[in-house]
Design a protein that fits this description.
5-stranded antiparallel beta sheet; 10 helices; Beta-Lactamase; 5 strands; alpha+beta
């Protein structure tokens, strides 16, 4: 491991742990998790699916719009490695999607059309309760090394504890309450992205960057800013003008 990569890994865990000290924003925390995985591992993109109390998966975070669309496609078709990972509670490693078309006849062609050639899906759990799954999408065929998979799973473990918000929480009602809060916040975030994208005539991924920039620069929770945009208490144009004075990015 190079010294630079070691520093990046330490920074990712430090950033996650720092978010848990205060009244953190679970939506932003999970977005940071997916971005950290995409940056630290030999993958092109990452997406995170979270389950509601009925066990239905919903898209919670993604690092690119093509991953967003592919994860949604997977949910709509009820087919794919992330769904199998959640159903079985075990990692699903797919070094070559082309070899798995019989297993996932709809998902594999869609993934390859999006430019992905491999997928690694990891379970997100708190003790015996499955919370969701993290999908790691690669543009080249091949399996991630054991160290990289262990790193990704460790990041997911931290996020799993963060979602529930209490290390001592063991009852299912508490877990479900926290999951529902996270899912509701994500819906509002998607709506806010749509408002900003429409207002500025920009892509949804850039709209998210605008939201994220405004929240960070003003020391505010991402979900609170998104809620104000949706309720029209804060105009999309205000956020776009703020982003225009700075480079849009993480």
């Amino acid at each position: 491991m190079t010294e630079s990569r070691e520093r990046d890994i330490i920074r990712a865990f430090v950033d996650l742990s720092n978010e848990l000290v205060d009244d953190y924003d679970v939506v932003e925390m999970l977005s940071n998790l997916t971005m950290a995985c995409a940056e630290l591992l030999n993958v092109a993109s990452a997406g995170l699916l979270l389950a509601d109390k009925q066990g239905n998966l919903h898209l919670m975070a993604s690092t690119s719009e093509r991953t967003h669309h592919l994860e949604v496609f997977q949910l709509q078709r009820e087919e794919g490695p992330c769904l199998d990972c959640y159903a079985d509670g075990e990692p699903v490693i797919v070094p070559d999607l082309a070899a798995e078309e019989e297993r996932w006849p709809q998902f594999c062609p869609a993934a390859e059309a999006a430019g992905f050639r491999s997928v690694h899906a990891l379970p997100m759990r708190l003790r015996e309760t499955l919370l969701g799954t993290l999908g790691l999408f690669g543009e080249a065929t091949g399996r991630l090394g054991d160290d990289d998979l262990a790193l990704a799973q460790a990041l997911v473990h931290v996020a799993s504890v963060a979602i529930v918000n209490e290390k001592s929480a063991t009852d299912l009602a508490t877990v479900n309450s926290q999951l529902q809060h996270a899912l509701t916040s994500r819906v509002v975030l998607e709506q806010a992205k749509g408002v900003i994208a429409h207002t500025g005539g920009i892509e949804m991924q850039d709209a998210f960057a605008v939201l994220r920039r405004y929240a960070r620069d003003h020391g505010r929770r991402l979900s609170d800013v998104a809620s104000q945009v949706v309720s029209r208490e804060l105009s999309g144009q205000t956020l776009l003008e703020h982003a225009g004075s700075a480079t849009i990015g993480p």
